[in-house]
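Colleagues,

For the teaching module next term, I've prepared a clean inverse folding example: a structure given as tokens, and then the sequence designed for it. I'd like students to try predicting residues themselves before seeing the answer, so please don't circulate the second half yet.
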């Protein structure tokens, strides 16, 4: 016998189960479908989160704009606050300037009081204008 015939006689058949392979392939296909479904759900969740993040960014920008406007209004309001010290200083100086004039003319007490009050009002107005 020659070599080829000897080899042909000694061939061992390897059992091949087509159904088993088909089941494995179906199992792999099912797993791939599950993965595809999970990936689609994750993509949907990411889209929803992206919309929420965009909404948060929009709200943050609006809050920042409002904060800038509030700071502007606070700065303008702080310059307009009423200070009483210039009025008091101006009133005192105005009253002190009228006293020597009224006392030097030997005016009565009522005239001295009215003159001091008028000088105080004029001094307060001047103090507010200078402040």
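(Answer key — instructors only)
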């Amino acid at each position: 016998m020659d070599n080829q015939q000897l080899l042909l006689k000694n061939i061992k058949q390897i059992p091949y189960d087509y159904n088993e392979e088909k089941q494995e392939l179906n199992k792999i296909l099912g797993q791939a479908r599950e993965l595809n479904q999970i990936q689609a759900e994750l993509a949907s969740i990411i889209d929803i989160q992206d919309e929420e993040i965009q909404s948060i960014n929009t709200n943050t920008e609006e809050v920042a704009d409002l904060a800038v406007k509030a700071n502007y209004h606070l700065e303008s309001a702080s310059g307009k606050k009423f200070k009483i010290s210039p009025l008091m200083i101006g009133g005192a100086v105005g009253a002190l300037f009228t006293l020597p004039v009224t006392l030097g003319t030997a005016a009565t007490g009522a005239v001295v009081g009215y003159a001091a009050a008028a000088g105080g009002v004029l001094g307060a107005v001047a103090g507010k204008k200078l402040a």
